[in-house]
Amino acid sequence: MSELTRLTAAELAEKIRTREVSAVEVAQAHLDRIAEVDGALHAFLHVGKDAALASAALVDEELAAGSAPASPLAGVPLALKDVFTTTDMPTTAGSKILEGWRPPYDATVTARLRAAGITILGKTTMDEFAMGSSTEYSAYGPTRNPWDTTRVPGGSGGGSAASLAAFEAPLAIGTDTGGSIRQPAAFTGTVGVKPTYGGVSRYGLIAAASSLDQGGPCARTVLDAALLHEVIAGHDPMDSTSIDQPVPAVVEAARRGADGDLSGLRIGVVRELGGEGYQAGVRASYDEALRQLEKLGAQLVEVSCPHFEYGLGAYYLIMPSEVSSNLARFDAMRYGLRVDKGASAEEVMAATREAGFGPEVKRRIILGTYALSSGYYDAYYGQAQKVRTLIARDFAAAFEQADVLVSPATPTTAFPLGEKVDDPLAMYLNDLATIPTNLAGTAALSVPSGLADGLPVGLQVMAPALGEAVMYRVAAAYEAARNAEDGGPLLDRVPSLEGAA
How far is CA 253 from CA 195, 220, 256, 308, 457, in A? Predict the structure, then answer.
């Protein structure tokens, strides 16, 4: 493995800016790493080698001409979740119904990455239409966890998280509908951030649940995540839900947090998260994280969010209902797969959706259609939205007592491939700690908090809407203290994958 692939995004950006190394060298090192190990992992659905090298060469040319870098991350490689549209690569959302589809436009996130001079290496594997917690529901085969290739990397953004943990890319983009950035981050020992709803544009993000979906940064360090956050965030008139407010000063906050002083900050310990049903090793790691935060000067305050226990049930009514509506557009008439079986449009549509959608997508469409149907709307969807309001009120009350809230990011460590794929309820329970943030539209991240039984564990830090700055500060302080105590980053201990391809 090239030493370039072990550097952080911030370190790579500085070496490229000072022309100690070229952006092309950096891109090639990561492309070589992908060729070396991705056969064993399947983190990528598509690798755009030629486009990546051309993008990197453009950065080198501009720097050679004396131009300032397009952004603080110019020339740094990135893995992009295959749910964002890209004109130069296929966009499948992990589904056969979009196999080979090349969009006519770039997503806003894609366009901002390109404008920043970031090298997009390719598109990463994901659960079909971002529905899943293990990346086993991809129509193109599962992704494996670099820590243990018999285990899942989490989902739906397992490909993005695995690419980071395997040193195939220093940066990645994911989406988080109910934990799809944070849960894979926890399972792979990486950093994953779910920004405030509306903080990052959803234009060109293939929708699953429009009131819940949120794109966000994935990285190996808190600072790298903050640098990427500032690139992709900000108002977009193409997205009607985009917040027209300044982007929180997350990079400044991450740098400040690295000094390790949290004096004066109140950290809320959520009573309803982290108890019964959590793996013993996860709980032990969480307890140790709380002690570490106290050592850094933070004041721990227990807070109660009594309606969080209803979050899972409410989410799995709201999310499938929006899926039922959003996926109606895949009708075999305009783009994507078309199975010409039958004389009528209805028969062609039915045959196409039967062939093109996988079992989990079909399950959620059926659930959502039922919840929205006449006679059941008020009893199911309407009640779930009322619970959503109560959860938002729980957050508001908790943030009156604390600056940020913390909990384990997941109830367990990464589980074996195949263990839960046929048990939807067991799979859904992986989102227990992450779902409340999506329902409320607030911000949260997962930062590595050690190992349990040899597998990574994540600490979740939650903040109010547009409160990302304090969230990054706390996470950076905790990360620095943890690394000092452990003698280096958690990913220094990821098993080698040399020769795995």
Answer: 15, 17, 5, 29, 24
